[in-house]
Amino acid sequence: MKKPSRPCVPTLLAVIAAFFAVTFALAPAHAQVKPGDVITPKNAEQVRALVSPGTFVAVSKGMQMNIVAPSRVDWPPPYQDATEKYSGQVRLAPDHRDLLGYVAGQPFPLLDPNDPDVATKIMWNQYFKPIATDDFDLRYFECQVARQNPGAQQQLIQLTETGHLAGYSDIGRTEVEPMPADPDFKTSGIWVRVGAYPTLAPAEDRGSGGIRYRYWDANKADDAWAFLAGTRRVRRVNEVILSSSAGLSTWDADHAGGFGAKPQEYNFKFLGERSMLACAHARNSPAHPCSTDGGATSCPDDWEMRHLYVVEVTPRPERITGILQSKTIVYVDGEGWFNPYMDSYDRKGELWKTQIYLFTYRDRPVPDARIAVYPFKREFNIAASSVDVQSGVSTTCYLPGPDTPERECWYINMGAADKEFFTTEALTKAGH
Fold first, then answer.
1. By CB atoms within 10 Å of each CB, which of 36, 213, 223, 262 scores lowest?
2. Per residue in 268-296, pLDDT tens?
3. Are 162 and 251 in contact (CB under 8 A)?
4. Whether 378 contacts 395, CB under 8 Å
5. DSSP code of 254?
C-alpha cells in the first residue's frame, strides 16, 4: 500500500478534530448524561456504560462526578511538528510488534479500526504520548492509602511522600536538546530511564527508592534496582515484581502512569472505540481527597464525554511469566492519548484493580505556578487512584500533594532531570 505523503498528516488531524467535535456533540444525548449533571451513588447507574467496570465501582462507592461540556485537547506544537515530519516513515516490523523507523512524535496518526494491527498501533501511540516526551520531574508528591467508605470522611491508613519521580527519554525528544535522540542511545540502547527516590515518608522507609531502564531491544528485559532503607543496600529487582504492588500501597510500577509494561511482552486485542466519560480538564489543582468515599479517590471533579479506544492487554507466556494480572483492559483517549482509567483482572478472571487518572489541560500545573509555566497548554496528571475493588483499599497519589512544600510539582520537558539522576550511585547517595 502506498504510504501517505506528509502533507496528508495536518489534513488528517483536521479531519480527526472535526470527527471529535461531532462525536462530542452527539455523545451526551446517547449517553443519558448532560453538562450540569452530578453523579453520586444514588444515580450511578447513569454512567455504568460510560466508564470502565472498576471506575463504576468507585462511583457507586462515593466518587462524585460533575458532568461538564467536552473541550478539545491540543498537542504541544513541537510534538505535532515531529509527528508531521516523521510519522510517514514509521511501520511495524514483520513480527507485527516491534517499531521501525521511529524518530519522534506520534508513530501512527493514521488509524484504521479494520487494520488487524490497530491495537498494537494504538498502544505504541500511547507509549509515545504527547504529555512528556523528553524528561519530567515530579517533586514532593504524596500518596494516601485509605479504605473505600461511602459517605464517610477519610480515615488514613498510610501516607507516603517521595522526593522525585523522574524520567528521561533517549528517543522521541521534541523540546529539549539533544533532539530528537540522545547520542547515548546508539551505544546504550536505553529507550527510557525512570527513577523514584528518595522516600521521605513513612519514616521507616525513609531513603528508599528505585530506578528502572527500558531498552529498545525487544528481547532485552527491563533492568531495575532498588535501595531499601532496612538493608541500606542496592539490589536488582526482577522485572515481574514491577507489575506487583508492595506493602500497603495498591500501586505497581507498570500501572503508575497508565499501562507501562514493556510492550513486546504483551498481546494487544482491539475491543473497539466508544464515547465514554473521562476527566481531561480537572477543575481542582491541587486535587484533594474525596469526602464522600472515605478519601479513597479524589473528587468531586469535572468529567466529560471523550472518544476512547479500548484495548485488551494479556501477557505473552513465552516472553514473561508470573504476572498476577490475567488481563488488563486499557482505555486510551484518542485525542490526548492518556489513560483515563484501566481495569486489571486476577488469574481467576475476576475484576481486581482499577486505576483512575484525573488530568487537567492548561499552561501550568497549578494556578499560582512561577517556574513550571509553558508557552502552550499541555496535559497534567493531577491525581491518580489505584483501587483494589476486592479489598476496598485504595491508594491515591496527588501531583502536587495537598500538604507538600513543593506546590508546582510537574516539571515537564524543562531539562529538570538528567541522566546522572538515574544511576545506582545517585540512588545510594540520596538514600544515605
1. 36
2. 999 999 999 999 999 998 999 999 999 99
3. no
4. no
5. G
